[in-house]
Amino acid sequence: MKGMQGKSVMITGAAAGIGLATARRFQQEGAQLILVDLATANLKDEFSNATLIDADVASDQGVKSCADAMTQKGIHVLINNAGITRDAQILKMTREQWDQVLAVNLTAIFELSKAAALIMKEQNDGVILSASSVVAHYGNFGQANYAATKAAVIAFTQTLAKELGRFNVRVNAVAPGFIETSMVSAIPEKVLDVLRDKPALKRMGQPEEIAAAYAFLASDDARYITGTTLNVDGGIILG
Predict the structure, then answer these.
(1) pTM tops 0.85
(2) What is the chain's Cα-based Rg?
(3) Residues belonging to the active site
């Protein structure tokens, strides 16, 4: 698989879970990787040819580091994968918890997408992909902050697709369902059983299945797809 041969691809939140699976998939596709995370040291051996950026994408310095890398290395595909949760019911949620989630899950996507779009416009080519979630469609108990950002990503994606289409820049989002990552390891087994039973396919998804969706949307096979949110959720959205 070499569909991304010679293309520069930036992936945020690349050190674990979906981000790591995506980095591995795009490495197989032949991409020139720019991997961004708070701690990329554990990526050095596996991704020896990648540009590694230790950065908090919610900080001004983190955004600058990413933008500088885009300028120096080029950027054909940006994957806004980084995300956090700070769960609490609304009556107990603090302003800090709200602000932290918005900063990483939404504002960082705006900043990095703008930086990428400035370059993609000039080269008349590019793909911007962002992480939404199925909770954007129906909310989730204790996740008002998280669900709000994921719904906003969908509207942001649609708007950017309209603005950048004339420059041959495609903008799409991926909305995962319940995915088996380290984030779910602390969830009690009884709760996991419920989560596995909810999707029509009666199982949780794997990080590699989200990575495959990113790879498709970044590829030339998806060259007439823009402004779309692809649900990769095993049918959980069906209710």
Answers:
(1) yes
(2) 17
(3) 146
